[in-house]
Amino acid sequence: MKFRSKIIDVGCLNHFTRVVNTVSKLTKSCVLRLTRDHVYFVLSGKISTGGVSMWCELLQVNFFDEYQMEGVSADANEIFLEVTPENLSRALKTAQNAKSVKMKLTKKNCPCLTLAAELPSLSSVSRVVTHDIPVDVIPRRLWHDFREPQMPDFDVSIYLPPLKTMKSVVDRMKNLSNYLVMEANLKGDMNLKIETDLVSVTTHFKDLGNPPWGDDGSQTVSQSRDDDLMAEVRVDIRKLQQFLTGQQVNPSKAMCNIVHKRILHLIFLHEDVSLQYFIPAVV
């Protein structure tokens, strides 16, 4: 089992750093899945017990100038590592002006993801800063727990409003309640609501648009559903705020799917990154 990669392009390094920073804001621990073509950050929470789930997918060729990996075997050419993304984020912060950054899987006192940043130097001798980030190698028998989550059979899919605006609204609502109701319909309308014994507040968004899932055959919303009918989900407002606060991916498309009273499925798409986040409903 081997992994070795190198980033030279500063734009790619900054982009990768933003992705890792986003992941580090969402979870203290996650699984780093390495395949020949992709890099994944996976959080496999149990929706049934109130846990959130995350699936972040990167096309490696758009980030790494060099990328070599050998999985556990020829028929299972993948590597699964449990990692603390905050540790990786801190290491990358020291490499922002680096001439190159190398990452490889090493064996020190324990398995490590070793990051070596070659920093600019006034002399002919280069300076290299090395970080050994402890990881746990996940055995193959547990890999099935970290596969891509299936797209839920949603009732409504809708584009999100500008994320800064949405974050501002959620930040203010958090001071009034621990829970938020998000509702939307197939006419591009979305409402954010909080209701307590003392106050009821609703923010309305109009003409957001609905993603055309049926055009590519990936999924269709029930054709029998009334366009005006709202689907809603009540979620822990802190989990939604954490997602909006932590994101640094700068998505070209941001949307959500609502499974009525069950799941809020948030999707951020960039040309070379996709981030999915599942927040279960609370009663």
TrEMBL record:
<dbReference type="Pfam" id="PF04005">
    <property type="entry name" value="Hus1"/>
</dbReference>
<dbReference type="GO" id="GO:0031573">
    <property type="term" value="P:mitotic intra-S DNA damage checkpoint signaling"/>
</dbReference>
<dbReference type="GO" id="GO:0005730">
    <property type="term" value="C:nucleolus"/>
</dbReference>
<dbReference type="InterPro" id="IPR046938">
    <property type="entry name" value="DNA_clamp_sf"/>
</dbReference>
<dbReference type="GO" id="GO:0006289">
    <property type="term" value="P:nucleotide-excision repair"/>
</dbReference>
<dbReference type="GO" id="GO:0000724">
    <property type="term" value="P:double-strand break repair via homologous recombination"/>
</dbReference>
<dbReference type="GO" id="GO:0000723">
    <property type="term" value="P:telomere maintenance"/>
</dbReference>
<dbReference type="InterPro" id="IPR007150">
    <property type="entry name" value="HUS1/Mec3"/>
</dbReference>
<protein>
    <recommendedName>
        <fullName>Checkpoint protein</fullName>
    </recommendedName>
</protein>
<comment type="similarity">
    <text>Belongs to the HUS1 family.</text>
</comment>
<comment type="function">
    <text>Component of the 9-1-1 cell-cycle checkpoint response complex that plays a major role in DNA repair. The 9-1-1 complex is recruited to DNA lesion upon damage by the RAD17-replication factor C (RFC) clamp loader complex. Acts then as a sliding clamp platform on DNA for several proteins involved in long-patch base excision repair (LP-BER).</text>
</comment>
<dbReference type="InterPro" id="IPR016580">
    <property type="entry name" value="HUS1"/>
</dbReference>
<keyword id="KW-0539">Nucleus</keyword>
<dbReference type="GO" id="GO:0035861">
    <property type="term" value="C:site of double-strand break"/>
</dbReference>
<dbReference type="GO" id="GO:0033314">
    <property type="term" value="P:mitotic DNA replication checkpoint signaling"/>
</dbReference>
<dbReference type="GO" id="GO:0009314">
    <property type="term" value="P:response to radiation"/>
</dbReference>
<dbReference type="GO" id="GO:0044778">
    <property type="term" value="P:meiotic DNA integrity checkpoint signaling"/>
</dbReference>
<keyword id="KW-0963">Cytoplasm</keyword>
<keyword id="KW-0227">DNA damage</keyword>
<dbReference type="GO" id="GO:0005829">
    <property type="term" value="C:cytosol"/>
</dbReference>
<dbReference type="GO" id="GO:0030896">
    <property type="term" value="C:checkpoint clamp complex"/>
</dbReference>
<comment type="subunit">
    <text>Component of the toroidal 9-1-1 (RAD9-RAD1-HUS1) complex, composed of RAD9A, RAD1 and HUS1. The 9-1-1 complex associates with LIG1, POLB, FEN1, RAD17, HDAC1, RPA1 and RPA2. The 9-1-1 complex associates with the RAD17-RFC complex. HUS1 interacts with POLB, HDAC1, FEN1, PCNA and RAD9B. HUS1 does not interact with RAD17. Interacts with DNAJC7.</text>
</comment>
